[in-house]
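Technical appendix A lists one of the benchmark inputs used to test multi-chain prediction within the project. The record comprises two sequence entries:
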Amino acid sequence: MKLRTPVAWLTLVVLYLISPLSGDVKAQTARVTMPQIKFQERTLPNGMRVLSAVDHSSPTVAIQVWYHVGSKDDPAGRSGFAHLFEHIMFKATRNMKSEMMDRLTEDVGGFNNAFTNPDVTVYYEVVPSNYLETLLWAEGDRLAGLTVDEPNFKSERSVVQEEFRQSYLAPPYGMLEYLIEQQSFTSHPYKRPTIGSIEDLDAASLENVRAFHQTYYRPDNATLVVAGDFDPKQLNSWVDKYLATIPKPAITLPRVGVKEPERTAERRITHYAANVPLPAIAFTYLTPPERSPDAEPLRVAATVLAQGESSRLYRSLIYDQQLAQSADATPDLREDAGVFYFTVVLASGKTPAEGEKALLAEIKKMQDAPVAAAELEKARNQLVTNELRQRETSNGKALALGSAAVLLGDSSRVNTDLAKLQSVTAADVQRVMKKYFTSANRLVIIYLPEAQKVPATGANTSLSNPGGGKAK
Amino acid sequence: MKTLRLLAPFIAPLVLTAAFVSPSPIAGQTPQATPPPPAQPRSVQFPKPVEQTLTNGLRVIVVHRAGAPLVAGQLLIKNGGEADPVELAGLSNMVADLITKGTARRSATQVAEAIEALGGSLDSSARWDASRVGVNVISSKIGPALDILADVVRRPTFKEDEIERLRQQTLDELTVEMGEPSVIAQYVASRIVFGDTPYGKPLGGTTESITRIGRDDIMKYHSRYYRPDNAILVLGGDITPANAFRLAQQYFGDWQKPVDALPTRGSAETGNSAQSRVIVIDKPDAGQAAVMVARSGINRRDPDYFVGIVTNSVLSGYSGRLNQEIRIKRGLSYGAGSSLEARRDVGPFSASAQTKNVSAAEVADLLMREVGRLSSEPVADIEMTPRKAVVVGNFARNLETAAGLTSQIGSLALYGISFDEINRYIGNVQSITARDLQRFAGARLSAAGTSIVVVGNAKDFLPALRKQYPNVEVIPVAELDLNTALLRKKQPAK
């Protein structure tokens, strides 16, 4: 099982690697030079940041606007709202009819999309490069204001509810993913899954849309990233014309200030659900946020544990012991706090207890002894290659730049974080494993088919209000 | 995500004005109410593949593209799931999985360690018409990666314990897959469209067929099809032809061609979808219903291939008719789309969407209606032009990565199509007219041969569906049998 969340996907994006790749394992002598992303940065008088990187290799250009607002900023009782709002941004604006963004992109051979995670909402377009000015106009227009009406709003809300069903209700382990998001945090608004709940989405109104746009969609909360085939002078003049003219509101930008308390004792949840072909378990651990120096060792640890068939979890749980159908480790390191989670779908005939024991044993091994040099080198090579693939396209480069600027707060980290990753030692990995992967910091989720529920003891996690945090 | 384009095989439109073409004069003050028009377009340069055939018959194709220091390599065997014997569905897939699980030189674990130490991955799988083994690595590591690739293709040992391990894993995978309504719908649709002919089987097999496959079957498949004169090696990305040909010779030059002739290819003999069925797979615990309409489509060498692509693009893609009607206008789904899969023999056409159980009948109706409308009325230019742009844009973007480039070139080579098609692609798409499209839809995508599959909680949609289709067959998921076109397990004799 691959748990695919917008967040997990972004995690890859956030791995910044730099050249050159150091000490290769024996047979390998070649050193890899990771191409630097040459970029320019400016901040407009209205507070909007603009990052740009020229690459003429293909006659296309990627345009992204990063808004520093995510599901952690969902209004009270409106879990899922930031994501719903993302959908609404494709509806009518002052000068565009609904879906006009598709006319300006798809209809000329490009595409657009957007994603929302707990910390950011990102809109992107890839178009033939002669359409750059058109798209800058369009991004400016939807930042300046929305004019969506009630029927369009309601119809799009239904689409998001279908997205909920398609992502979480239809696939066998969708609700396990949901539980991991929902149960890992107790105080911080991260406890509300980005997709929200059907009920909270039903409660959302057009008035909420207006207020949300006014509060968060403002130039000083936005970062424009342009990568690909363009002329920098022209870009600057178009940015001045279409984006610098948008006024910065006087009201202050609200920020989440809640601190997630440290966990003090292991917590266990048993959840029974429909459509569970094989039982599964998950462990989640709270970690520092992605800006922390411990982020790189945690990513190396996840790679050693779970990337590929030579990884420790695959070797042990799937190959040697044949206990598991799948075993994953995900460092979901966010802006305010991170969660590092494991998911194991058991092989048929195996019990959650067996899976738990085996997973704990692998975690303990990482704590008891340093990772071998060759294993560490392998993980670095895997991370470098992932990053290179990520940056093969202009849109991928723009994603890397945007995450450095917005999530790490320093665009230059797009080129410097690889050095940090290269300097991660086996001792660093062992240290973070010992520090964060303690029993007191563990949440255990046992995910079982409804049919295994024993009536008298069937205490289930309540999902009646899966937005969490607010009784309705 | 706003759309699921990244997940679904989407491609196409509607009566929409491209606003920059005919700017609507909306009064606006800031700073300008209509979008600025595009500048002059820049021309697209497509990389040119070059090729050599080794003396053992292996075709080697190289396509150089400077850019990221990455190379994708793919070895294609020109047979896949269609070559599985009737009762051994999933055999080709097991073979492809097993070749990486131990060779004369490396154990399964050593294979994984070797490729992953390079930072790369080795992916092998069987598809329809081909089995593929692929690597994607930093360009400086392509030599060692090809060493591993050649080893697994040429010298797998197929040890009993590896076969048993994989069998158990595959059975569990099938169990998980069958929890997903959309996967069940796809398998059922294949059986309806292709019956008991080769493309009708589930590619990954069934519990029964996977249980049946023996080591002899596996060895026989491998020796019969994994041979240099039945294979194509494609290398794409940051690699020069000279270097690529040298490496191909080094790792594959002494791969012996067997003395016996290549097995002749039987036709997948499709086209038995004249009888359309309406089938409900009742899965009461489904959190959403999967709705699919399907029929036979075209083969890859069909003269109407490009007409087919453009036709499909009118239906599919974010602004395609299906998504317009089902998602954008009615909010009934996260995404609706269609695919026209051109294979060596006639492949499937399907249109699908997932929706809440109660709206499944409505969605089935909308899918059928939009497919039918293609032949009942011509597509206006104002709709056709942007849908063609979508096709061309997708094609060009696909060539921007080493993996995309390699797979595109590999596909042309597999079906024996000239690489000139790359440069003719845009012209071919642009030359399609509304008349071509309507003729094609009438002859090839008519509703008469189209079947409907709905997988979901039947009690929520069956009455509505039955009103429209009194002939609907209902099969409880527990009684579903994908081993034959009957689709239903035989009742035990009383």
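Residues 70 and 119 of chain A are 4 Å apart (CA to CA). Chain A touches chain B through 104 residues (CB under 8 Å). Comparable benchmark entries are summarised in Table A2.
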